[in-house]
Write a structure and sequence with these properties.
This protein is an alpha/beta fold and 302 residues long. It contains ten helices and 13 strands.
Length: 302
């Protein structure tokens, strides 16, 4: 059975600033902000939430099915996905458009500044999810606004359970939008900042939201692990000590690959989240979102 991953495929240009943003950005001068960061390292990587999640899920032995768009420059990405044995039936190329591009600068504290050009991602709403018997689970990740709305509705209509993971796309939606997503979803996952924004915009606490039809809400907390909300009860799932802290780019996506794999195995939400924590800890020790490898048996055994 496949796991459908709706989200972006992108090229990430990743650079490192050998300093701290907080020392370069003066709070009382934000209104005339004009800063430049010297970045001695520069790498171009395959990225985008759909690609990153699919990569981790593939390593775990899952069967990812990506629904996303590429630009005319996306040939190398298509070849990469084919090398993994991933079906390209829902990966469409948009002529006269670039593949989505993320330009990321990371400082010594692992804070990040990102510029994102959506490119072909803006046409993802043209992709259609139809009822099918070979999809066990899905995730709605950050994508074009219309694509996220339409795909959530299509998954709901097809009665395919899905994780709502708005990520950096959350600010695009108002309270009513978010309530509709939550009503359609089976699980919700956000980071701690997004969790506060979600509560503020819906006017409900995470505890109250978890008392609904949802099977659970996961709030990621970086190296501290995550909190899991199930039917009004909160459980902390401790983080995993990383062998090294090299690059946080794609850590959240690695976490979600573990979470999805656990859910497809019928695991309890806290156990699935613990696998996500292990995947995130492995990823952060490597530069780039799709460069790490795992000992599958050891990771799954915990």
């Amino acid at each position: 059975m496949s796991t459908l991953i709706c989200g972006s495929l992108a090229f990430d240009t990743i650079s490192t600033f050998d300093g701290r943003f907080a020392q370069q950005i003066l709070p009382d001068q934000i209104h005339i902000l004009n800063v430049s960061f010297l970045v001695p390292t520069l790498k171009r990587e395959f990225g985008g939430v759909a690609g990153n999640i699919a990569y981790g899920l593939h390593l775990l032995g899952g069967k990812p099915l990506i629904m996303a768009t590429l630009g005319a420059d996306g040939g190398p990405y298509r070849e990469r996905l084919q090398q993994w044995g991933i079906s390209l039936e829902h990966v469409h190329t948009v002529p006269d458009s670039y593949t989505a591009q993320a330009i990321i600068i990371t400082d010594k504290d692992n804070n990040q500044i990102t510029a994102f050009h959506p490119g072909a991602m803006q046409y993802a709403d043209q992709l259609l999810i139809e009822p099918r018997n070979d999809v066990q689970l899905a995730i709605i990740g950050p994508d074009g606004r219309d694509a996220m709305i339409k795909h959530a509705q299509q998954l709901s209509d097809a009665k395919i359970p899905f994780v709502f993971d708005p990520g950096q796309g959350l600010p695009m939606f108002d309270g009513e939008d978010l309530k509709r997503f939550i009503a359609q979803a089976t699980w919700v996952t956000v980071n701690d900042y997004e969790a506060k924004l979600l509560s503020d915009r819906t006017g409900q606490s995470l505890v109250d939201l978890s008392k609904s039809h949802l099977k659970g809400i996961v709030v990621t907390l970086g190296p501290q692990g995550c909190d899991v909300y199930v039917h009004g009860e909160v459980q902390h799932v401790p983080g995993v000590q990383a062998a090294a802290v090299v690059d946080p780019t794609g850590c959240g996506d690695a976490f979600r690959s573990g979470l999805l794999h656990g859910l497809t195995q019928g695991w309890a939400l806290d156990r699935a989240a613990a696998l996500g924590n292990r995947m995130g800890a492995i990823k952060i020790a490597h530069s780039g979102p799709q460069t790490y490898s795992i000992d599958r048996a050891a990771v799954l055994a915990g």
